[in-house]
Amino acid sequence: MSLLTFAKIAWAVGVVSWYVLRIPFERKAKRQRVADARHRNLREMILLSISTLGLGIIPAIYAATGFPRFASYPPTVLQVVAGVVVFAGSLLLFWRTHRQLGKYWSVTLEIKDKHELITSGVYQKVRHPMYSAFFLWGLAQALLLPNFIAGPAGLIGFGILFFFRVGREEQMMREAFGAEYDAYARRTRRVIPGIY
């Protein structure tokens, strides 16, 4: 098996693992009553589609067909090993975030009935560890898929979702939790502990 084939398989295993990890949490979250879903709109669906394009569709086309070939380059062993390690870290953080959020998790911006603000565990240092996990996934994709379009597509696609969504999400949390959220925001960073 070539290094490129291994890298593509590793990326695909990571994506499938992400989906499998999410299934039980998605089922649990669907059973919860939603108190505030005003952000479930066309803008949100467009942002989710852009993220899916970058983290799923474009890299899947490349992994399956090699298209676009002109943007490809040979991978290195170090690059692929780093990609596998980063993807594993992303999946671990993703699982821990889902586990901690439990019934309060949702794909779109929602406040559940009797929603509590989670500030411990992985939420102790960053307010959006799930976004941190997605950025790590994007970084792993850039390392595992040696193509100047398919590789960084995840960071670009998810980055667009993040920067157009995070302010609205934080405003929604502020409205729901008031001073408690403001105090939490002052002592934490968004996605990188101690930095941003």
TrEMBL record:
GO terms for biological process: methylation. The chain crosses the membrane at residues 6-25, 46-64, 76-95, 134-164. One of its GO terms (molecular function) is protein C-terminal S-isoprenylcysteine carboxyl O-methyltransferase activity. Pfam families: ICMT. Gene3D superfamilies: 1.20.120.1630. InterPro entries: ICMT_MeTrfase, Isoprenylcys_mtase, Metal_cation-efflux_comp. It is found in: Membrane. The keyword Membrane applies. Keywords: Membrane, Methyltransferase, Transferase, Transmembrane, Transmembrane helix. This is Protein-S-isoprenylcysteine O-methyltransferase. It comes from Xanthobacter aminoxidans.
